[in-house]
Amino acid sequence: xxxxxxxxxxxxxxxxxxxxxxxxxGRYFTDEMLEPWREYLSGRKKHFDALNEMFGRLxxxxxxxxxxxxxxLDSWFPETVALCHAKxxxxxxCSAGCDWYINLLIGGxxxxxxxxxxxNHCDYSVETGLVMKRLPEDxxxxxxxxxxxxxxxxxxxxxxxxxxxxxxxxxxxxxxxREADVxxxxxxxxxxxxxxxxxxxxxxxxxxxxxxxxxx
Length: 216
Hints:
Blueprint: E1 4-10, H1 20-28, H2 35-41, H3 47-55, H4 64-69, H5 77-86, E2 91-98, H6 99-113, E3 116-125, E4 129-133, E5 142-143, E6 147-148, H7 150-159, E7 162-168, H8 174-179, E8 182-185, H9 187-195, E9 201-202, H10 206-215
Parallel strand pairs: 1-2, 1-7, 2-3, 7-8, 8-9
Antiparallel strand pairs: 3-4, 5-6
Helix pairs in contact: 2-3, 5-10
GO molecular function, one term: phosphatase activity
Protein name: MtnX-like HAD-IB family phosphatase
EC number: 3.1.3.-
């Protein structure tokens, strides 16, 4: 029987050119508004709570959806997803961010190719800003700190008999990288994988991931 493969990818900074939070902070936030993030970095606040508090401050910004839609994406990502669909390789996008901006950016691909989005739900209006909602605590991918456990997604796929290709860029991605069969890493994740002697394929864009999928 042929091996079953799945592709699991982080979104912010991996599929998109940079984190939505970083880009939004640079455009809309004052230094004082970043205090919840400093509390998270110092261990005084959970990642989800810090992000939710800051996202909620994105109020009164009618241009925010247009700003999101202009965030650059990896130009090779659509081709990679289309190839996976043709080869019946399921694709999972896992993010500690939220579905609102991810759907604005790749909602068409998600619908067309049946991509599974595993992330925090978010309600948005100009009046309230972004209001994130945690997964239920009994959800298999629930994480108390960041909201979504990417490692749990990889583990679940492996328990179902899949081999997993994972792509990521940040420190939280080291957890799913430890579980995956093939790891594509860049930025800080690449350094962490090398430090832990995790066999890793450095990548600049999804061209390398696409090449790997072709060979599976």
